[in-house]
Amino acid sequence: MDNDSSSRIVAQLKEWIARAAPGSRLPSTRALVAEHSVSPVTVQKALQALTAQGLIESRPGVGTFVRAVRTARPSDYGWQTAALRSPQAPLRSASAAMRSAPNDVIALHSGYPARELLPERLVRAALIRATRGEAALTRAPAAGLPELQSWFAHELGTSTPPGVTPPGASDVVVLPGSQSGLSSIFRALVGSGQPLLMESPSYWGAILAAAQAGVRVVPVPSGPDGPDPDGLARAFEETGSRLFYAQANYANPTGAQWSVRRGDEVLEVVRRHGAFLVEDDWAHDFGISSAPSPVAARDDSGHVVYLRTLTKSVSPAIRVAAVIARGPARERILADRGAESMYVSGLLQAAALDVVTQPAWQTHLRSVRHQLQSRRDLLVTSLREHAPQAHLTLVPKGGLNLWARLPDGTDVEQLSADCERAGLLIAAGTEWFPAEPAGPFIRLNYAGPNPGAFPEGARILGRAIQENLR
Amino acid sequence: MDNDSSSRIVAQLKEWIARAAPGSRLPSTRALVAEHSVSPVTVQKALQALTAQGLIESRPGVGTFVRAVRTARPSDYGWQTAALRSPQAPLRSASAAMRSAPNDVIALHSGYPARELLPERLVRAALIRATRGEAALTRAPAAGLPELQSWFAHELGTSTPPGVTPPGASDVVVLPGSQSGLSSIFRALVGSGQPLLMESPSYWGAILAAAQAGVRVVPVPSGPDGPDPDGLARAFEETGSRLFYAQANYANPTGAQWSVRRGDEVLEVVRRHGAFLVEDDWAHDFGISSAPSPVAARDDSGHVVYLRTLTKSVSPAIRVAAVIARGPARERILADRGAESMYVSGLLQAAALDVVTQPAWQTHLRSVRHQLQSRRDLLVTSLREHAPQAHLTLVPKGGLNLWARLPDGTDVEQLSADCERAGLLIAAGTEWFPAEPAGPFIRLNYAGPNPGAFPEGARILGRAIQENLR
After folding, report:
1. Is the four-CA dihedral B445, B449, B450, B453 of positive or negative sign?
2. Are A149 and A157 in contact (CB under 8 A)?
3. For residue B390, which of B437, B443, B344 has the smallest C-alpha distance?
């Protein structure tokens, strides 16, 4: 309500400002309070919004005035073409999966869970507590808050089998989100121009980070059971690569979860080639009909570099993740993080730790799992009924997405555009392939807003696929 | 007090755990409440701390148990040596200026202002408001919150002279700290292996970011009046570089502020060579006896890339900065940020905007200016009296630091170590030189804790210099 009044005053003052001469004095706060029958705080808020928009300026003790708006003349930045040269590695822009959607469309395109799947009360309470503490005004250590490092190490340690040394707190580097971790890992452990093996299809953010780091991506095909160990061995031998990037649990986009045996086979191939496995455990909190089983828990020889994020399950505003690595690899990653951003906001770290150590966090995760299960099942059923041409190779045991193969000859970009016109957002599979797509695929997120619209979304998709093939 | 009780319980339970067998059940919360005469919240807090440290685990509905601690065996990560190869650009570790200091030493080494110079009440109130809003649970746009982009553009626009087009909100990219901006700018606008001109001495963080980006740093000498325009022109011609990194106001470490005329001369040289000036306005909020005058405000042809941070003046936990750039340069920087970290926490952005748009923010900045003035003057006087061998080329008109040249032959690393043993932390000047130091320099921060100890610090320094020369 307070927000509404403030917006109303902003709108009215904007009209007034549009007609006023630059330098005109605005009515006093007292006059505005009386005119709009609101509190001084509401008026102050409106004035702050107008100040932020550059429309007014206040001179303390004097008053608030309309700013002189200068007329912009068009500029030619053509000279920059020479200074910038051709890009060393052209960076794709952010994925379609990052698009914000208006409320009235059916949004199956996103990579994030919907607002109602977030632990809103836990997050707000944790932020309030963190705000009151030291973390709000102090610098955090370069590798992260020690308590949070411990928590990350402990979590992975709980999956460590007997005889394997669990990671320690000092193996952990806290990150401002897992994307930053990917960038640092590829820069620090592979280096510009060197080959990097990557599952195909694979997370578009990892493909982007690899391009930024200037590494050469070598795709390794990966199916519902993960990559073929012999194929992986061949790729290591052919390229001399020393690093394989993969998602062993609920891979994005395929949803594949490696069996323990497959994980051990991959680990063995990686060890034999004196290489690293970068395990991106992006959906650790989103197991549905299985529990995540990190390969990293079964390695204590420094071969697995483990990436774990809290951003997706806690809140997109709490950008906190961690990399767990041992030996010199960890030191290289930490040095790269130092050069890139020095340290991660201690406030966000304290809030993240607070959330995940509350008993209610476990309760929340159980509830999310149940909701993801119903949503996944509803979308699968809807597709089978209304869009049977979208073939699911796998009903994933966790994660947020379905990966569907469409009939040969489908133009997925055209299909996405057709669906969008009919009120449905989907993600064309193209972005998940480091090189050419292996076929016409789409990714459908079942964690978005309004699952009630899944049947309608499937109907739109089914019709659009048929029309696309005509 | 609550914190104290909780720490006391943690300490006592740790002793108990050390003697207990793995799997032993801890006393119930109720029993601990009774035993320590504290609230259940305090007990819960203690148990959370122990959980985070990996010492106990709770099984909901059953109880809390001592975790089995596994014995770690030493590992040999020697195989990584082959996988990692020699580093492409060895990264120095974080600067001595980032060290935390114990309370009982005189700390003149740091790069940050002391806690008492931060707007604590504004920061906490802003964070509480941001926590209650949408920003706590939603993803922010890639280039930043539009209102914050506007604020940054507007601030630079207030210094724009007539006839020059001020920057618009869409020229702004919000960053998670200015270090990330340096990394992105050097990667996006210079590129690996290409030459980058940089003032010498210059900010160690910029030198570090340049090493990470793999660019070749070419030092351009800079004195109390800034760089010599002819020398700068020669460096552009000799190297073919297209980018010059500099701090035109209160440079770190020298404190130099360029005159308007010098700024225009530098800008002219930069334009003539079809190049960029990266202006790092790190101390915009720390003018003392002058106001900062950004060169960027006098350019609308896309030649100046402007970097402005709020982290130092608002709070080290609110990592928010911005880069303002026009034309394709801005697009390259934004694409690099996308690949590196996708977006900046909207919560921190909302809190930063809240702080800087409060009327009390201006009052706070005035108070900080007065405090910095007294502190600067006290340290200058103390040095002149007790350490006259430390020659100040300049009493800076703003910023946080004094830059002192010591007698020829002084070993500054040895001097730092001697001072530290006597209870004084200083920063050896070595780190501020992209190549060899031009002489024995030290940097002294007058914004640290406890300015009352400045005379004593100067005494320790004076004695150490004398002993160092013997």
Report:
1. negative
2. no
3. B443
Cβ neighbours around A237 below 10 Å, total: 10
To the nearest whole angstrom, how far is the Cα of A152 from the nearest Cα of chain B? 9
A405–chain B nearest CA distance, Å: 27
* Cα–Cα dist A28/A63, whole Å: 7
Do B357 and A51 count as a contact with CB atoms less than 8 A apart? yes
* CB < 8 Å from A in window 414-443 of B: none
A11 phi, psi to nearest 5 deg: -60, -45
Contact B359 A60 (CB under 8 A): yes
ipTM, two decimals: 0.86
B69 touches chain A (CB under 8 A): no
Please state at what angle helix B359-386 crosses helix B120-132, rounded to 10 degrees: 140
Please give the model's pTM, rounded to 2 decimal places.
0.86
How far apart are alpha carbons B246 and B223 in whole angstroms? Answer: 12
H or E element: which one contains B323? strand B321-324
- For the ranges A18-27, A39-48, B217-226, B446-455, the lowest mean pLDDT is seen at A18-27
A112-167 per-position pLDDT tens digit:
999 999 999 999 999 999 999 999 999 999 999 999 999 999 999 999 988 899 99
Residue B1 has what pLDDT? 41
Query: What is the band of A94 on the pLDDT scale with cuts at 50, 70, 90?
Result: low
Half-sphere exposure of B394 (CA within 13 A, CB side): 22
Dihedrals phi, psi of B256, to nearest 5 degrees: -65, 140
Which residues in chain A are contacts of B317 at CB distance < 8 A? 135-140, 345-348
Give the best residue of A138, A242, A347 to mutate against chain B (max B CB count within 10 A).
A347
pLDDT digits (tens, 9 = 90+) for A441-457: 999 999 999 999 999 99
3-state secondary structure A52-120: HCCCEEEECCCEEEECCCCCCCCCCCCCHHHHHCCCCCCCCCCCHHHCCCCCCCEECCCCCCCHHHCCH
Angle ∠(A182,A188,A190) on CA atoms, nearest 5: 85
DSSP string, A250-270: S-TTT-----HHHHHHHHHHH
Across the interface, do B84 and A332 touch by the CB < 8 Å criterion?
Answer: yes
Q: Which residue spans within A281-349 are E strands per DSSP?
A: 304-309, 321-324
In the stretch 288-307 of chain A, residues with CB closer than 8 A to chain B read 300-302
Domains and their CATH numbers in chain A? 2-66 (1.10.10.10), 96-112+361-469 (3.90.1150.10), 119-357 (3.40.640.10)
Q: Which tokens is A442 given?
A: 């789409």
Q: Test A128 with B128 for CB contact under 8 angstroms.
A: yes
Query: pLDDT tens across A341-400, in order?
Result: 999 999 999 999 999 999 999 999 999 999 999 999 999 999 999 999 999 989 999 999
Question: Are the C-beta atoms of residues A230 and B357 closer than 8 Å to each other?
Answer: no
From the centroid of its chain, how far is CA B399? 13
Whether residues B84 and A212 touch (CB distance < 8 A) is answered with no
Cβ contact B84–A329 (<8 Å): yes
More confident residue, B191 or A168: A168
Neighbours of A262 (CB within 10 A): 18
Per the CB < 8 A criterion, the answer to whether A350 and B51 are in contact is no
